[in-house]
Amino acid sequence: MELNLEQIKVAALAVTPGRWEAYGTIVRDVDGGEDQLAQGRDFEHARYIAAANPVVVIELIERLERAEARGDAALDMAFRYGGIDGEHHKTWVIDQMCRALLGEGYDAWVAEAKVGEDGPETNEWDVGVAP
User: What global pTM score does this model have?
Assistant: First the structure.
């Protein structure tokens, strides 16, 4: 199945923004009044429509795009530098890939990786040496 994220984003931006809620089978804009936005076949369908509101859809698309970009950056790092000899260089490649994949979460992830049975600095995290 081919996903056209740009088409989905355009569609999400074209409908009523804001928080939606299901009231029975009716979906309404919580922030903008009592206008009926959609109607589901039953409460479960209406609840699903409300949960997939434009704010949520756009946030999911943006998260997916950021994750794909981080994955591409990590794979690029492996492709460009993964074949270089030397354990210290390969350790650097692994560290750089982790940085690319984790983004702002890198420092917290490393701190967690260092925790062991003897406390927060039980294990080492080696950043290696750039080639």
Answer: 0.77
Nearest to 28 by CA among 56, 55, 8, 47: 47
- Helices 5-14 and 54-81, packing angle to 10 deg: 150
* Segment holding 20, helix H or strand E: strand 20-23
Coil vs helix vs strand at 87: helix
Question: Can you read off the two tokens belonging to residue 32?
Answer: 């903008």
How many Å apart are CA 27 and CA 39, to the nearest integer? 6
What's the CA gap between 47 and 38, in Å, rounded?
A: 11
Give 21-34 pLDDT, tens digit per residue. 898 999 988 877 66
Instruction: Supply 15's token pair.
Output: 């409908």
Bridge partners for 55 per DSSP: none
In contact, 27 and 39? CB cutoff 8 Å:
yes
Q: Give the integer Cα–Cα distance in Å for 123 and 112.
A: 10
Interatomic CA distance for residues 80 and 93, integer angstroms? 9
DSSP secondary structure letters along 90-101:
HHHHHHHHHHHH
Three-state DSSP class for residue 81: helix
